[in-house]
Amino acid sequence: MFEAFRQGTPVELWQALMQEAYGQTGRRLDESSESYLVFVLLRYQADHQLLSHTQGVEWLQALELVGRARTDALRDVGDRCLLVAGLFPGLAERRRVSVDYFITIGRSAYQGVADATRQAYAGLYEQLARSYHELVRTLDAMRTLSKVPSVPVVTH
Fold first, then answer.
1. 24 Cβ partners below 8 Å, 6+ apart?
2. Nearest-angstrom CA–CA distance, 125 and 11
3. How many C-beta neighbours within 10 Å does residue 129 have?
4. Residues of the chain with pLDDT under 70
5. Structure pTM?
6. Which domain of life does the protein's organism represent (predicted)?
7. Who is most buried in 29, 78, 91, 103, counting CB within 10 A?
8. CB of 109 closer than 8 Å to CB of 77
9. Cα-flanking dihedrals φ and ψ of residue 66, to 5°?
């Protein structure tokens, strides 16, 4: 099953894995959410610092910023929480918090972007905040299909 995903551009690979995840969950994301999720996966696929962030602290720091710096920081927190909740749920356990902790912070971050941004982006981030659980479910199904461990193995 996963063999089919090994050829193609990174976008094609993520989209193919997402299609397979839809078969597992029986649910499909809307086109905007699907495109955004692929964008997030592409953006963070080589980020070796992704799991080292303290999302709660960074969310509070983002709330103290203004303008574009605030929306960018909130978007980043929302994106990272989404990836942690969906792809690395074991990290929550290791940090002695629930996956819902990351979901709550991530949804709040996306809602903050929606509240602070121009109309065109506001609708997208409101939709992302509303469908956050569905985004996490899709990522979790993708993790299961690709056999990504819920807590990454760190080698030094």
1. 141, 144, 145
2. 21
3. 20
4. 1-6, 148-156
5. 0.85
6. Bacteria
7. 78
8. yes
9. -130, 160
